[in-house]
Amino acid sequence: MDRVTLLNEAIEACRSLHARGLLAAGDGNVSVRLDRETLAITPRGVSKARLQSHDFALLSLDGTVLSGDPSSERAMHLAVYRAVPEAKAVVHAHPPTAIAWTLARPELTELPSDSLPEVILAAGRIPVVPMAIPGTEAMGTALLPFLPAHRLLILARHGGLCWGESIREAAGGLERLEQVAEILWKAETLGGAKPLGTEALKLLQNLRANIGPSII
Predict the structure, then answer these.
(1) What is the CATH code of the structural domain delimited by 3-211?
(2) Contact status, residue 196 vs residue 114, Cβ threshold 8 Å
(3) Edge-to-edge strand ranges of the sheet holding 89-93
(4) Phi, psi of 168 (to 5 degrees)
(5) Neighbour count for residue 105 (Cβ, 10 Å)
(6) Suppose 126 and one of 30, 41, 111, 157 were both cysteines; which one would form an S-S bond, judging by CB atoms 3.0 to 4.6 Å apart?
(7) Do residues 174 and 94 make contact, with C-beta atoms less than 8 angstroms apart?
(8) In the chain, what percentage of residues exceed pLDDT 70?
């Protein structure tokens, strides 16, 4: 896919995430791999609703800034691309309900998946990455234990991150994350989500294995 198309798809994803309330003001960041050693990433402090193709910064895989003013959270993106050669896009957003789970339930190591088939079928598991201070190198380091096994992650007290083999997969993962987080939250307010039976869980896990690693 050519560079213009990749950037246009990233812009479309940014505007969609903003319209859905998963990003506010200058929050979040999106990147796409342009070639083996180069990525384009959204700039620091620019609203994703107003993003233009010329706003993107360019980075080399070693972290060298080639042009522009890249997001201060680029360490996460670089960590993914370095650890996962098949990653073509990374999306980080701030889905409110998913974040709220980590504020209210700091002991969680993953979003509960034993009651909602969509969690298992769409992502398998959605782990919670321990908190790292935004804008630090620790944000990238914290991801490493979860790569490449997991594509969709909750960042404790911060947001969500999804990498994919396309920008559509990565952006769709954040939409999926907020949807399932909200369903589970509403179930909690109604008395708590009741787990599926062992046989149903096993069947769902087998179906997920047949789907493959992509986020759907």
Answers:
(1) 3.40.225.10
(2) yes
(3) 65-67, 57-60, 38-41, 29-35, 89-93, 159-164, 152-155, 128-129
(4) -65, -40
(5) 12
(6) 111
(7) no
(8) 100
